[in-house]
Amino acid sequence: MSTIAPTSAPPAASGAHDAELPLVSVVIPCLNEAENISSCVNAALEAIVRMGVHGEVIVADNDSEDDSARLAQEAGARVVVERRRGYGSAYLAGFEASRGRYIVMADADLTYDFDEIPRFVAALEEGAEMVIGDRMDNIQPGAMPWLHQYIGNPILTGLLNLFFSTGISDAHCGMRALRREVLPRLDLRTTGMEFASEMVIRASKENLRIAEFPIEYHPRGGESKLSSFRDGWRHLRFLLVHSPNHLFIVPGAVLAGVGTLIVVLVGAGLDFFGRAWGVHALIGGALLMIVGTQVLALGLCAHAYGTYFMGEQDPWFDRMRARFRLEHGLLLGGAFVLIGLVMGGLILATWIAHGFGSLADEHLAVIAATLVIVGIQIFFSAFLLSILGLRRAR
């Protein structure tokens, strides 16, 4: 849990009435940044003073083992101690403690210029609900490893834009700002570095007005806490689990479609790619068809969970659930099972008619078994979707 360390009012608040809420809260997460934190707090307070507004600086100390918390407090910040480690945990504690109408976020490593605070606030005043800096064209020499600059950040930002259509140039910039009133809509939850991705994804899904402008990125002071591959994977994992279409629906549809095509062509005895294909190709197609159906079903269940339990909105899924009901899934699954059983019955009848000799209908047997399995998957997946949908009545 987080605790707030007692501190005196920051210099920027002088002359303001005690009951007046600050216009700006600058929230700085901090983990063992004794080398930099005083400079960051002083720079933030000076920027607020130059703006001529009532503001505050909140340092969310993530249970530092050095003197970061004490130094931040002495510099004039209000210190929140969040003992649960994690970039997101620190920010969530800082957001909860802040009181300003506008929240400006920046790291405690001197990589961002706190003189940019007025620009962020001005963009919010002009109507933006979230403002994000764009570092990519203004990275100072030595400020960002080439792996992050040319591979990691472009790939992750590109995937985020592909999955969620955000149009953001630098989705992982640590200097950003937002209106306090949008926090309940964002419903931020993640505790690690993927918190930066979560903010952008949630803002996109809530159709927030997002502004972006170039800022400079400077070499950090002190030791970096970032783990390239671990934190990169956490961002990628977060993007995938919040995009059921790309994780489940698209791959599942491709697998099921290719598998069905192979089963139909081989089952009909048609040649393709210049040759005839036997039972082994049919088994491969059946496997793709079964796996693809299961992945599609998982994707639909993921959509249902996100819609009913997490407040997600997806126009495609909303149209599907409005058009199809439990009975449609039961009928489709039952039809597949029935056709498969009929084929199995024909095989059994032929076997009996030939005096229980060897079976020679391998192709038909594979198709029959595949249809039964796929039908059972559809049948029970429809029930699971209906169970998840019970929450709509509450």
Summarize the structure.
The chain has 13 helices and eight strands.
Description:
It is a single chain. This protein has 394 residues and is of the alpha/beta class. It has helices spanning 37-51, 68-75, 87-97, 117-125, 146-164, 183-186, 195-205, 228-241, 244-267, 279-309, 315-323, 326-353, 362-388, and strands at 2-5, 24-30, 55-61, 78-82, 102-105, 130-134, 176-179, 210-214. Strands 1-4-3-2-5-7-6-8 form an 8-stranded mixed sheet, with helices on both faces. The protein is elongated, with a radius of gyration of 29 Å.
User: How many angstroms does the end-to-end distance come to?
Assistant: 32 Å
Helix and strand pattern: EEHEHEHEHEHEHHEHHHHHH
Instruction: State the total count of DSSP E strands.
Output: 8
* Weakly predicted, low-confidence segments: 6-19
Mean pLDDT: 87
* Main pleated sheet: 8 strands, mixed
Question: How many whole angstroms does the radius of gyration measure?
Answer: 29 Å
- Specify the CATH homologous superfamily of the largest domain: Spore Coat Polysaccharide Biosynthesis Protein SpsA, Chain A
Query: Numbering strands along the chain, what is their spatial order in the largest sheet?
Result: 1-4-3-2-5-7-6-8
Q: Mind telling me the CATH class of the largest domain?
A: Alpha Beta
Q: Estimate percent helicity.
A: 40-55%
Second CATH tier, the architecture of the largest domain: Alpha-Beta Complex
Q: Tell me the domain tally.
A: 2
What name is given to the CATH topology of the largest domain? Spore Coat Polysaccharide Biosynthesis Protein SpsA, Chain A
Overall outline = elongated
Helical run tally: 13
Kindly name the structural category: alpha/beta
Strand content: 5-15%
